[in-house]
Write a sequence for this structure.
């Protein structure tokens, strides 16, 4: 039994913790991989997806076309930072999953808030639609235009404004890349309070706009708690400065919350103030194999009991999702085959205490027979290799064929039942049905692949998946948002009264509806 | 040196940790004390404050008076739960601090959401103003009527709906008392994610409505992160159900955030879903004495380094605030006199590890000479006694005379400079100038007492305190909210653009302005 041997080694020496079979992997966050030419599926070429306008049932709203006069205005405002070349525009028109494709003729690259303000004021006056874009790593078609909306990219707004060593408060422009920010902070003994697979490409502004979740929610909570302030440009070009850096501020309504998670439909986030936790002095990662999902849940309870405040992630993946990273990315699974795998991360301030807690937990997990194999990593390189098995599933799935993606919140006890029911329901019509996700947050990523897009497969999946989720009081989008692709499914998770109130908010802030149209909130009647 | 001896004892045995000099105190959260007859200042009698309408410069808006027809409607709707007796109404018309006094003739006590809905629909149709009230423990005059608004009390809405042992999610009505909820949860191995001095009286709905902070923010974050869902009745009587219990849900705008911290001006919160942390297995509390505020800050840095994830509170109080609890509540300070005192709480999952971390920290604090005395408590009774020294300052101040209260967020390095400047500025015209608060959150409570209310003292304090705070990019209300008394000071912390947007939100949700008028958001021009 692989784990048993390991556990004995653990008791003897710290260095023995790290399993030698952990593989070397390419450091390649999926956002980066997407844009690199080394990844053939990702290059824009013969495999270009069809235009959204042709493929989806959606009608263009009566926004005027961009004129040469408009173009002249933007070229004067942003000299050398206006893109109109069709080929250059492709990567901004097509989403990472290659499932939606806009037809924008114009990309604007402002460098600061004032430029964003002037752009939006002009667009609002002219009634031109705008699609804001960060790292374009979204999974629901929210970050690319649906028709010919002007793309407003935050890529050149990538400056750190300040970092306060005492309080851990970072203030930066919204186009900073998450991983770059994390690296910057690590040099100063801090980390970002969020982490996700797309960190190499995604922008912090996009993270806020989508209320990104990811791997650290269990420990540091959501962005609604860690974001201290933001600056946003409203659709009419006015600048709303809520960029404070205070942990507590109860002076009036908390306007920043409107923009967190509104997916660019209420304005453009231009700057962010965020509270960053200290970099943990000690990090351990355990990969465990379990024979059933009920044991995954039992291990979660055991783990919370033993690890308490040092537990920083509890992720799970099923065998099928392990196979997909082995097959397409050639990553190696250091454990024997199990029906389920669990990744448990601890992050604490005392190496010795953390080890003792983890050892006690592993001993108990072993003795009780809840896990059937396991490995532990403590050094940075090996931790990254183990994390890759979980973090790169999204990337691996993109190599497997057309991907139907569902990102669901479901009470944990019921979480895997949906995967099993979906698998049984689809039979051989799907290539793969995989389930993985942030178990500690009750967040399941259900993914189905097929060789090519299939209407009949989609019909077997929807509304089944949404109805099943709503039937279990779940959310049909836990962390990905609604974007373009899931907008009309909002009623599975929200009452019509709630949606009407959202529509009133949208109307109030964006009366002309120019900001990221066709997305997130269904059009009011 | 008191601490030195203690530290040696700590090294020898765990039981020696708790100092025998810690006193027995009455268990009396200040909210409870206020309402009890044992506390003469608190009884409604000759010391009644003047009516707000007479004492403050504020004009009644043209809401109609309550008619006998209105009364009949409410008596049919809420049989036996309509209060009109003037004496019975007094405690609901006067705030805890006895600084504001409304003149409501009618108190309604609904038991459920449907009743609240019917009340608000009727009031909105009739254009009758409503003042929602929880435990009436607010400190800014937000929880009592200004004129004759109808008081809607949540006191009878005190039922727990459900508690999920796996996820730690509590769902309850908004009138549940915070301390009762905490006791209920402790029996099941969990605690509430917030704790504050008024816990014995305040309602969870009021906590949400005011985005209450308190003693656990440092560890568990703000309510914006821990509240999973809520139900609110809008001013027109419609019920908005956002009562989900999911840790993650990104389906549209996060409407619940509108109601958190809006102080009852946008609707009435009727139910709450909140994520509760596990009850820590081990809790320690240390009270330390420091000779200067710069040392308080140095100890904070040292403490974060050593205690890391088990640090659950870092509170400070100055000598003057220690004296006030000694004088008026007869609590005993177990330490020698110091210029400053620090309360450090640890909460963790392993008694032995927590002790080791705390010991290492205390040893370092001692060796470095940063602290001059100290005591540690581990058992529940003694922990409560030490906490009382800090938690009951508000109550003690109420015995000292008229209290001018300021609740400020200020960058920690500058936090105490304001107390010193205020003290120097006021000289002998104030009875006391005290500073204490949640240092870990950058939150200072600055309180000034005088024998009676004095216009000249107020003129010396305002706008000085607000200007000073704004000059240091602080917030003029960190956690108490704006209520009636601080509403017009919002501009010290928020831009006019931000306030205008708040006014538009208010207008959208409450076009007739019936909900908690005269409060939080300045009247739109």
């Amino acid at each position: 039994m692989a784990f048993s041997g390991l556990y004995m080694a653990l008791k003897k020496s710290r260095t023995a913790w790290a399993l030698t079979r952990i593989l070397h992997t390419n450091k390649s966050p999926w956002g980066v991989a997407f844009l690199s030419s080394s990844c053939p599926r990702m290059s824009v070429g013969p495999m270009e997806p069809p235009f959204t306008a042709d493929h989806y049932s959606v009608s263009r709203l009566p926004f005027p076309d961009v004129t040469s006069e408009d173009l002249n205005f933007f070229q004067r405002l942003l000299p050398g930072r206006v893109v109109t070349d069709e080929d250059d525009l492709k990567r901004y028109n097509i989403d990472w999953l290659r499932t939606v494709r806009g037809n924008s003729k114009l990309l604007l690259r402002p460098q600061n808030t004032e430029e964003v303000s002037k752009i939006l004021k002009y667009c609002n006056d002219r009634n031109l639609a705008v699609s804001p874009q960060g790292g374009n790593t979204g999974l629901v078609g929210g970050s690319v235009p649906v028709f010919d909306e002007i793309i407003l990219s935050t890529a050149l707004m990538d400056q750190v404004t300040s970092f306060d060593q005492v309080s851990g408060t970072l203030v930066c422009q919204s186009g900073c890349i998450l991983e770059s920010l994390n690296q910057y902070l690590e040099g100063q003994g801090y980390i970002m309070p969020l982490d996700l697979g797309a960190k190499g490409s995604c922008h912090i502004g996009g993270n806020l706009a989508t209320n990104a979740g990811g791997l650290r929610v269990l420990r540091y909570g959501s962005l609604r708690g860690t974001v201290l302030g933001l600056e946003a440009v409203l659709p009419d070009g006015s600048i709303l400065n809520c960029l404070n850096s205070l942990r507590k501020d109860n002076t009036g309504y908390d306007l920043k919350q409107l923009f967190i998670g509104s997916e660019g439909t209420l304005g453009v986030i231009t700057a962010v103030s965020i509270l960053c936790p200290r970099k943990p002095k000690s990090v351990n990662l355990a990969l465990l194999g379990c024979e059933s999902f009920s044991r995954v849940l039992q291990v979660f309870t055991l783990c919370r009991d033993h690890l308490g405040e040092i537990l920083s992630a509890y992720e799970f993946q099923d065998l099928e999702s392990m196979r997909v990273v082995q097959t397409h990315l050639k990553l190696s699974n250091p454990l024997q085959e199990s029906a389920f795998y669990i990744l448990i991360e601890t992050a604490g301030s005392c190496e010795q205490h953390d080890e003792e807690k983890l050892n006690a937990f592993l001993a108990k997990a072993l003795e009780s027979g809840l896990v059937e194999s396991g490995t532990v990593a403590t050094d940075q390189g090996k931790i990254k290799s183990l994390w890759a098995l979980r973090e790169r599933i999204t990337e691996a799935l993109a190599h497997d064929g057309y991907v139907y993606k569902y990102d669901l919140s479901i009470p944990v006890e019921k979480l895997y039942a949906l995967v099993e029911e979906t698998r049984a329901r689809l039979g051989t019509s799907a290539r793969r049905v995989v389930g993985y996700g942030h178990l500690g947050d009750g967040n399941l990523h259900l993914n189905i692949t097929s060789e090519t897009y299939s209407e009949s497969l989609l019909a077997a999946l929807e509304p089944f998946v949404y109805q099943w989720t709503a039937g279990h009081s779940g959310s049909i989008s836990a962390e990905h948002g609604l974007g373009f692709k899931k907008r009309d499914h909002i009623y599975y998770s929200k009452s019509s009264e709630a949606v009407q109130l959202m529509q009133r908010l949208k109307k109030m802030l964006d009366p002309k509806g120019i900001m990221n149209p066709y997305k997130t909130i269904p059009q009011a009647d």
